[in-house]
Every structure is written in structure tokens, then in C-alpha cells.
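Format notes (please read before filing issues)

Several people have asked whether sequences and C-alpha cells are stored in separate files. They are not. Every record keeps both together, in the order shown below: the sequence lines, then the C-alpha cell lines. Line labels are part of the format and must not be stripped during preprocessing.
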Amino acid sequence: MGHQSYILPYTTDEEREYLLKKIEEHNHYYENHPYPDDPQADFAVGEDLDAVCSFPLLANKPKIMGDNTRAILCGNGGGRNSTTKFFRNNNIQYWFYTKQKWISTNQKKMVIYAIKPLPKPDAPALPQPKKVIKVKSTVVSIDNGTETTTYDGETTVKYRMRINPVNTLWECGRMKMSVGGGRMGWVLRLPLFRMGCPGDEHALINLPECSQPLSPEMTYDWFVSLGELLNSEPFCYFDFSWFQFRKNCLEPNKNYFKQEFGWDDHKVDKFLEDGMVFITSRTEYEEGEKEYLEMEGTKLPTLKNFWDAERVGNGYGLEY
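Then the structure lines:
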């Protein structure tokens, strides 16, 4: 059904205020009550009443209007049956407006009423964010190897893996080289040399396997893979410079090892000194070796045994 307008006659100011109050209750009904499952329920109302105004009633008004001298006009877009039921339940006389000629059309005598909207409840207070003096996260270049974070005035330093850059093929470290497809990228150089000449540029054995992908971090699995690589062909046929590897790949990461692995200074120094043994060590016992080592309170100097050891001895054996 289309828009329906209503005539609500009154005489006194008290009657006018009562009508305006009931119109306000009508419009706010569903904001105070859940919408019924059955729209035909007794307490249902129609759409909001709008265009609320009052006009004088003319002398030719019908006798049924009695002593009423004015009328409120209002309307809604739907729910006429529910709205008229609301009028009846609140003892409000009403007529449907059809351009009756006994209602004044003098705009100067019209009074418009604004139906106040229902006050909205105070919005819940949002949790206030923690006051931050300054938040700053800066990852310094890979050559520096640290990540400095300042949060709420407190500064922490996280050590990142760092491998020194090199410029020649006979040096061990990270180097920018062609990685295929016309692209340049960082690789880990693990150069090989003739036996007995580790680090000698004139004894360099330059094979494709000497350029390995550069990992973003060093982990136990990374060192296991490194050991498998050094024990495989062609690495096992040539010499490898542990001095260069220690200088450019391990020494820059002393703090990184302490942070990531929980090692103390002694264990870090032991790894830098004898790490080649732990990384490339065999894992099988020779005849009688297991019993002897157990008697001495040591174990094979494998990478796993070193990793798990709470403290390490001065020799290749591991003390527990």
C-alpha cells in the first residue's frame, strides 16, 4: 500500500502534547522492542509517522469533530492497519486524510513539529592504545648484521646472519654473480684447492659446485647439509679452506650463534676452532671405539653430539 495520511483532531495544548508524545512512542517502538515474529501481533506498529504538522479546522467541519479546533496531520508509507490499531489502543481519534475541504490550507497557520529521535546510548569506550613514544624498526645492511628495534622507548638489538662479501673466486664468502637468465644474485662461494694448498689462489679448482645458494639463516640443518656437501664429490677430492670459511662466515656470526643457539662464549670459540671436525665427522664407531669413548666419558665429535652438549672439552671429544 502507498503512503497513508491521518487526521488527529484536538482542542487543548495538553491534547496536542499527548498526541505528539504518542507519535514519538509509535516511531520509537521497534527501537525499544524486538520485532515480533508475527507482524500481525497486537503490539506491532506501522512505519514511522512523518510530516507531522497541525492546521486549524474550518467552520464547515463535520459535526463528528465536536469542539475540536485543530488537527495534527501525519502519515507513513506502510503498516496502516497496525498504526490505526496503535491509535485505538491509545484512545486517539483518527480519520484518513483525503484532501478534506474543512481543513485550512493557509500555510501561515500551519505548525510543523519535529519528532525527536530516540537518544542513542553512549557508545562503549574504545580501549586506548598504549602510548608509544616512538616505534621504529630498522634492519641495517647485511654487512652490519643487526636489526635494531625501538619500541616505547626501549631498544632491542637482534643479530642477523651475516657473511662477509668477497671479490675474488678463490675467497670463501658471499659474492654477486650471474645466477642465470641474465640475472645477478648473491651466492655462497665455497672454493676448492689442490690438496695441501687451501686458500692459494694459484691452486684454485673452480667448479660450478663451488657456488651455492645463499641461505638467509644458519641452522643445525644448514650445517648438516654443509657437511654432506663437503663429504660428497667433488669436494672430497680437493682441499677446502676452513680458515677462510671461519673468517668470513663464522666469526661475523658469534653473537648470532649465542642468540639463536643459546651457546656461551666457550662453545662458540670451540665451534670456530674445530667446527670442520664436527661438521664433517663420521657417525659410525670403529671396532672398540665406542667402549673406549664411554670409558673416557666422551662421544664421537659429531655435529649432533656437539649441538646437544651442555659443555665441550678441550679435545675433539665431547665432555658431558
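For reference, the curators noted about this record: The chain has eight helices and 14 strands. Helices lie at 13-32, 80-89, 220-230, 242-250, 254-261, 265-280, 289-296, 303-308.
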